[in-house]
Specification:
By secondary structure, this protein is α+β, with helices and mostly antiparallel strands. The protein is built from 8 helices and 9 strands.
Amino acid sequence: SPQDALELAQGEAGIVAAAEKKGIDDILYLAEHVEKVVAAQKKIRMALLKLAQSGDWIVFGDAKSSKAELGFAGAMRIGSTLGVSFTNWSAEKERGTDVNGEWYRWNFECDAAYKNRIVRVYGRAASRDKFFGKAYGKYKELHDIDEGNIKMAARRGAMKEGVKVLFGLHHQNPNELKDFGIGLDYAGGHAFQSSQEQVTEVKSHKITIATSTKMESKQGGSAQVDAVSFQGGGRHGVYDVRY
């Protein structure tokens, strides 16, 4: 009836008003305690990061500007210690064609959960990623690419992202980490290069391979390259956060 509809509308309005009041109370509480909350979160985060080892970090940038990113192994040391779970997995393979031929990409999604907090995260890795699908400046044929490594990199990317999002571990300042006693002496490094530097690197790499092809097959050099490439490959991200 019209009266029932009116009462229902008033009830819904009451819920919204209560939510707004709670929101205001939360803001006032945060304003009063924000500095303590920030200090506590920073202390917790730095304690967690000490679970990771020096070699678990990759430092991006140069002497002027750099950031340290936690790798999969370090993220898992933290996640397993705290009891992070990864559930509700889904996987999808995308295929396409471009000027270089056929390509594919694996997308993995999952819920990463710690206590009552859940984040939906994803990881991606593709045959066009240079760590998997490129050699000596040229894209590999699909039959020369290990699809299993690509799938594993995508799945691990999602897990790593889950831990980093749950505990705010993205883009760490190397100097700040050192101040808290977290060593980066053996961290991997990567500097973004200009186009000319990349061309020079590819040319010198070709010369090196041309003069050591026979040795490479005896010493298993290609297997070592695959292992290093696997650690750095893939893309990852977060979709949403739920409480």
